[in-house]
Amino acid sequence: MVFRKTMLDMHNEHRDRLASGAEEKKGFPSAANMRVLNYDLELEYIAYCYSKVAWKGHDVCRFTHLEEYTGQNVYGNSRRNDTVPLYKRSVEAWYSEIDEVKDSMGLINNFDLRSHQKATIPVGHFTQVIWSRTTHVGCTRVWIPENPFQKAYHLMIICNYGGGDGGNVRTTKIYDIGEPCSNCPSDTTCNDKYKNLCGKLEPIPEREPFKKENRGGGGGGGNGGGGGGGGGDGGGDGGNGISATTDGGNNTEGTSGVRRICISKVLPLAISIAVYCLI
Predict the structure, then answer these.
(1) 158 φ/ψ angles, rounded to the nearest 5 degrees
(2) pLDDT digit string (tens) for the chain, length 279 residues
(3) Can you point out the beta strands (E) in 108-190?
(4) Is 210 left (phi over 0), alpha (psi -120 to 50) or beta?
(5) How many CB atoms lie within 10 A of CB 232?
(6) 84-95 and 2-20 helices cross at what angle (nearest 10)?
(7) Rounded distance, CA 145 to CA 151, Å?
(8) How far is CA 99 from the centre of its chain?
(9) How many Cβ atoms are within 10 Å of 276's Cβ, its own excluded?
(10) Which of 37, 100, 110, 266 gives 121 a disulfide partner, CB atoms 3.0 to 4.6 angstroms apart?
């Protein structure tokens, strides 16, 4: 519960500050349609399933039960550190890529990492965090003593993002520029807690996701769209973080095609390694 609350709070705090126009870095203007995020068990479960197999970058299978695509951010660390400061550090690492944006207005109005980030330094993790139409997030963390794919990194935090279009979709707007909450979806108003975000905060789920006696449920997702970036810079307790690059992109395959890819790519990874899920 502490992990879920920390991850959700960190995302909403960053989104609220940027939407207010108070973000001083890179001249990001206020956002008229930034949604508040709620916590989603299905998105957490999808991340949890992937973390139990093994990890090398991003999983190719992130569809919800509604066949909706989701975005993803991944943070890696070299030391076991299951603490609130590390949870916060993961989101801070993703958001800190704001420093690498070279054209904030261009990026906001026409998402294309190749045109609006510095050299090869990624900003897709940052844009995934602030994508205005995202409505849900679900995260997990896992300890892998022996990681055959990323030998230096043993602890990872994975967040999946759902709602809207899944985030990081090329040639689309990240958000509408304008006074905070001035262009909220018709069924939403300004949030009572995060006054620059649209929508209502729901209670954070306390139960474990999708036990056998609790199948179904969940939410989030997003039609079409491309996934978010992977990894974040920085580490915990002297450990090094991990960074990966992405350009988001549109999902161009049908659901059945993606599922076939999931089966062919994920099953060979199901090797016998010890993983300790920390949820």
Answers:
(1) -120, 130
(2) 899 999 999 999 999 999 999 999 999 999 999 999 999 999 999 988 887 765 566 677 777 876 677 899 998 777 777 889 999 999 999 999 999 998 999 999 999 877 777 766 789 999 999 999 999 999 998 877 666 555 666 678 999 999 988 899 999 999 999 999 999 999 999 999 999 999 999 999 998 866 533 333 333 333 333 333 443 333 333 333 433 333 333 332 222 233 323 333 333 333 333 444 444
(3) 136-143, 155-162
(4) left
(5) 30
(6) 30
(7) 9
(8) 18
(9) 15
(10) 100
222 burial level (CB within 10 Å; 0-12, 13-18, 19+): buried
**Using an 8 Å Cβ cutoff, are 64 and 163 in contact?**
no
Report how far residue 234's alpha carbon sits from residue 215's, in angstroms, rounded to the nearest whole number: 36
Structure tokens at 10: 């960190």
Helix (H) or strand (E) holding 107: helix 104-109
Domain borders along the chain are: 1-207
Burial of 257 (0-12, 13-18, 19+ CB in 10 A): exposed
The amino acid at 226: G
- 3-class SS at 149? coil
pTM for the full predicted model = 0.77
Residue with tokens 């018709």: 186
